[in-house]
Amino acid sequence: MTRTTIDFGIDLGTTNSAIAMLSGVGAEVVKNNLGSDTTPSAVMIDRRGRLQVGMNAKQRSEEDPDNTCIEFKLRMGSTGKPEAFAASGRTMTPEEMSAEVLRSLRHDVVQRDGEEIGAAVITVPAAFDLGACDATRRAAELAGLPYAPLLQEPTAAASAYGFQTDTDNAFWLVYDIGGGTFDAAVINVRDGEFTVVNHHGDNNLGGKLLDWAIVEKLLIPAVDREFRVDDLRRGNPEQRRNIARLKSVAEAAKIAVSRADEAAITAEIVDASGDTQDFMYDLTRAEVERLIEPLIVRSVNLSRKALEESRLGPGDIEKVLLVGGPTLMPYLRERLADPREGLGISLDHGQDPLTVVARGAAIFAGAQRLDTAAAGPPPPPPSGEYAVELEYRPVGPDIEPFVGGRVTGADTTGCAIQFVNPGTRPPWRSGLIPLAADGTFTATLWAEKGRANTFEIELTNATGDRRPVTPGTLTYTVGIVETQPPLTHSIGIGLADNEVEWLFKKGTPLPARRRTRLSTTVTVSRGSGEGMIRIPVVEGEHHRADRNRRIGRLEVDAAQVTRDVPEGSEVEMTITVDESRIVVARAYVPILDEEFEHVLNLRTESVPDAGALARDAADEKARLAAVRRRVDEFGDARAAAVLDRIDAERTVADLDADVDAAAVDPNAAAAAASRLLDLRAAVDEAEDELEWPELVQQARDTIPMLHEIARERGRPADRPVLEAAVDAIQEAITAHDAGLLRQRVEEAYMIAARVLDESGDLPHIVFERLRTLQPEMRDRDEAGRLIATGRRAAQSGDLDTLREVNAALNEMLPTPQSPLGMISTVRRGR
């Protein structure tokens, strides 16, 4: 059949994947050759080089971990070592393995319907970074899906839950916890459309963490008690097979205790002597509930944060939409519904949480028209016949949708077009609509809710005779649709002082475009091939560049330039982000009058080295211990609350486990790097809380200084700038944001220094401050002579000489001071 819309949606999951097809006003999951709705995201290559995907590969991962790979989605976009399949000698990247899963799902459609599809909507976690989105796009191309828009998983879930809803002016919360990722998204439904208001998520929070907790906290200790097994842990490469077996049975038992109080575990374990032992363990629901508690705490904290930033409380949310296999656990549902320790919001579990994302993606796909790149241009009509080019939305909230178009082919003089909806009783007709001289027309249709409305297109010539036209039908469905998708993380460039220049802020509607001017920090030498324009790109929300996820670089290589580019040369960057969060960047270098295409390299960030992770983790834990001591000493409640959150989420314990396993498991290395960023940001937050009272006092001392400068020393044009700096400080105090307040105070001092310098007061202020520091200077006699010279220069108004004296005196100090630290002396009484 010839499709005009994409119609197929794919949930490319960490643990399992699924494909669904639009069917009327719903979506139907396409079963695989085993009759299952889902296909395990697992790949195996045997010693003959034969590749298998799905259940066979998943089952073999227990016995043959050296030749199978699972959970590779978590490394999408990284540039670490490819996965090695030992028996065959082959290697594959996460993108290549994901492509095999996508190819398998495409084959399921062929097997069932005989249809080769070249387009599908593919879902990604909202928490995915730009590199992971770009890697998913590449995987789709490798799988034979050159046209594959990416859709955020919470948006897909909202499409499935709300497509035919009558709800209006309501807020929903999507709680999406899968095998390896978590997303919490606030959705606003209004006037037949929904908008993602806010999002928070974690790419390393999901059911697999519970699997590993069962293995490490329960099964490994039980094995050690019963048998002699040397160093049984994830980080020991000699124990990969034993660990893989325990991981597999842990996952199965976890699912079983969702429906029963207890599940029997049996596994074959190879002991220290090489003998196979039968290991048995009875896993109870209570044990699983205890182990999942930190995961629930973190997911609830992220959900609450998404609500708080949206200025919404539980009473403002109509319902929570449950998505992902772990939401089948009764305990998780009970905890979420608890108003004290959970969210206290009504839960909606009316959809199958395992397939809702795929079905939502298919519903979304039904609203996406196939462009000529995907479907190819329509063939010209045979001589004497007609074709119609249509412009309309295949899905929308209106029961009276608008359609426009143009009839081409034979002579259209005197022709008219009519649309008929035969599904209504009686059939609705638009009436004859005369074509304009160029064959164009516009029409308003009538559609019914609850079904796909297929309109017949009738064309009549000047004599009123019916003439065949291609296509002969148009399909429109009344349903809820998404408005512009938002950017889920801010995107910026890292600067030399560890600051960030933000290009796009979180929540920016997509598509988006930004142009910015930067300067080169090195000389790019054409002749020698030395030097490169290289600017780091980060994704996150932290004002310190190194606290965000570094996702790539903006690059222009020396080999690309036609002549030397001196240090400090201007570079104009133009960056666009489309609805799929695919980024394209161009660089224009004015000194060359050249533009360089595709200068964003998202393949630069590798999975961290296990040794470096261990060292960094030790440093952060030492910093955390120092903060604990300060909290114990000063008793700051806000800082203590941050430490309680770190403990409740088991951030350190998870980090230690992932660091230990990082040398063997690249997924653990990626998780450790992510958790390390979380710990750094949390410790920063606790330190900021401890420094808050002192910081507020400093800020409040700054405000009178700014007022005095504005009143007595600034020009009229300076006063609005200084008053704006005061307002900015007050806003940061109200927001209780230590990082922001520190930044606002620093900016205020810089403004004050500029105003005082332009007024001629700054050199005098700096000189008076340095004069008092003479006892600390290395050469007091020389300092005395300079101070005498400075006095004469100050009295005569010789500012140039006074600045020279100040610079020389400052160099004599053990630690030279910044003028910004000296301008507080402008306040009276000092």
Automatic annotation (TrEMBL):
**Which domain of life does the protein's organism represent?**
Bacteria
Secretion signal span? none
- What Pfam families does the annotation carry? HSP70
Listed A to Z, the keywords are: ATP-binding, Chaperone, Nucleotide-binding, Phosphoprotein, Stress response
The record ties this protein, via Gene3D superfamilies, to: 3.30.420.40, Actin, Chain A, domain 4, Substrate Binding Domain Of DNAk, Chain A, domain 1
What family does the Swiss-Prot or TrEMBL record give for this protein? Belongs to the heat shock protein 70 family.
Question: What protein name applies here?
Answer: Molecular chaperone DnaK
Species this protein is from: Actinomadura algeriensis
